[in-house]
Amino acid sequence: MEHPPTALQISAAQVESIHSRLKKRPRHSENLIQAALFIAGAISILTTLGILYELGKEALLFFASPEVNLLDFLTGTKWQPSIGQFGVLPLVNATLMTSFIAMLIALPLGLAAAIYLSEYASPRSRKILKPILEILAGVPTVVYGYFALTFMTPLLRAVLGADNVQIYNTLSAGLVMGIMILPLVCSMSEDALSSVPHSLREASFGLGATRLETTLKVVVPAALSGIIAAFILGVSRAVGETMIVAVAAGSGPNFTFNPLQGAETMTGYIARISGGDLAYDTPDYNSIFAIGLLLFLITLGLNILSRRLVARYREVYE
Amino acid sequence: MVTMSMSPNQDYAIEARDLSFYYGSFRAVKNVHLKVVPRQITAIIGPSGCGKSTVLRAFNRMNDFVPTAHIDGSILFHGKNIYDPDVDPVQIRRLIGMVFQKPNPFPKSIYDNIVWGAKINGFRGNQDDLVEETLRKAALWDEVKDNLKKSALALSGGQQQRLCIARALAVQPEIILMDEPCSALDPIATLKIEDLMRELSKTITIIIVTHNMQQAARASDQTAFFTMDEDRAGLMVEFGATQQIFTNPKDKRTEDYITGRFG
After folding, report:
1. Which structural domain range is residue A261 located in?
2. Which of A172, A295, A296, B222 lies 20 to 30 angstroms, CA to CA, from A206?
């Protein structure tokens, strides 16, 4: 067998062949893929900008109409467009109430379930439980809506008395919304908890910590930024949720802090009006864009807040 | 095959008796007899996969977290088998601390790293004193005394490992297990840890697993040599004073390993 030539024995022809192999060659598919990926990214950004433009334009029409004044819109407690009263607070209040009730369910239960899955469950039960939880996340929200109306509300009426609980009420919608959001909070929190390095748990156990001490004082603090992100995403989801509240929370803008009464949320109102028969270019109709814009700003604000909190509470680990 | 250089009635810090260790049905370690002398440094050496770390972790039941792991035989601590059903593994780990291969400080301040373990163990004394005292013992005080509120992760690897030792000391264990504590450190940081071990062994029993034979030769009083059998189970070949193991090994396999003839 011939030995490979050493550096000194390379012929001119071999040098030539090496040089030709080093030559830069065009890779068209690479460029094509890059362009396709760029377009995909650009489309989503442009769509968002388009939505913002449309919302802003129509909302501007609303605020430009003589019946409307921005301050009254933001501080008024009566929403009766037919008689020219455009105070958005009843709708905002209903949205905040249903979201608050939902998070009251979703945060503790979701976090507890996440802690169980990540810290306590055996690998086998985790393998079974996690997909089941994710199925819950795949149920269409309209199904949840009717679940609220036909199961949760009768249940509440049976427990709290039919006289006290209206057929449409924010408590029922909020509770079911909490169940809907629970898998999201749980799944994201679980991801955050399981990505805490195993070495930190060992360090804690090695110091004589119990599993509970390890979980609450080491793992959860280390995963806090991810848990906060899960929570804020859950709130955004609750604020934007439409079907459940449209079906179960009621359809009259009612300014009340009583969760047993019906009240229309921002999304519920938008859904009702946009499906209704109001004439275009009336302030009534245009109001939904103003509300949509407000909703957009609320979720945007929550997202910014979540980024801040995540950065602030981050316990960096290797 | 097990060589004992001590009289049998000596009081041991901890003792493995006919210890076999299983992962599921696979026997990872078989029939280990190991008597650890108090306030000395016992090194466990041997090739990869011979069960050194497994045995080390058996001493404070850190293997409990491996779902399929179980043992045969016993580990006696003050005459009590720590695998008896009425023994609380949490209490065992408070008395038998551990330092890991990779420095793993909590993502908290230096100060909080020290007081954390002590606090969950019911420490009620002066925390500032505890921090200073343990950091001094771990030969880290002078380097960090002005930055106690700084994140522990900002320290160098060697400093982090000494912090982990300090953290273990703050719980006041009788024994500290060290699982290749220097494998992620540079030679200078390694020597600092070895000096520290020597100092600590005046009051505490140390058992150290190491890949580094020079380290075992330099830093330990007793050495246990482990290897693998044909059935891939780890076993202890020879155990005795470090001096004897390295200069006059009784077993051919020990000699092959320490002279580098081992494949």
Report:
1. 79-313
2. B222
pLDDT at B7 > cutoff 60: no
In a domain, B120, yes or no: no
- Note the pLDDT tens digit of each residue in B40-88: 999 999 998 898 999 999 999 999 988 889 999 999 999 899 999 999 9
Judge whether A24 lies within some domain: no
Taking the Cβ of residue B126 and every Cβ of chain A, the question of whether any pair is shorter than 8 Å is answered with: no
Domain count, chain B: 1
Contact call for A203 and B97, based on CB within 8 A: no
| Structural domain contains residue A12 | no
Q: Do B98 and A206 touch (CB under 8 A)?
A: yes
CA A182 to each of CA A82, A105, A141, A265: distance values in angstroms, whole numbers, following the listed order: 38, 8, 13, 21
Q: Is B94 on the interface with A (CB under 8 A)?
A: yes
Q: How crowded is the C-beta side of A17, counted as CA atoms within 13 Å?
A: 5
**Is residue A225 assigned to a domain?**
yes
Least confident of A101-110, B147-156, B229-238: B229-238
Contact B151 A316 (CB under 8 A): yes
| Structure ipTM | 0.90
CA distance B183 to chain A (A): 15
pLDDT tens across B115-137, in order? 999 999 888 999 999 999 999 99
Range of the domain at B90: 14-102+177-258
- Output b/e per residue, B74-92; b: 16+ Cβ within 10 A: bbebeeeebbeeeeebbeb
Contact A206 B65 (CB under 8 A): no
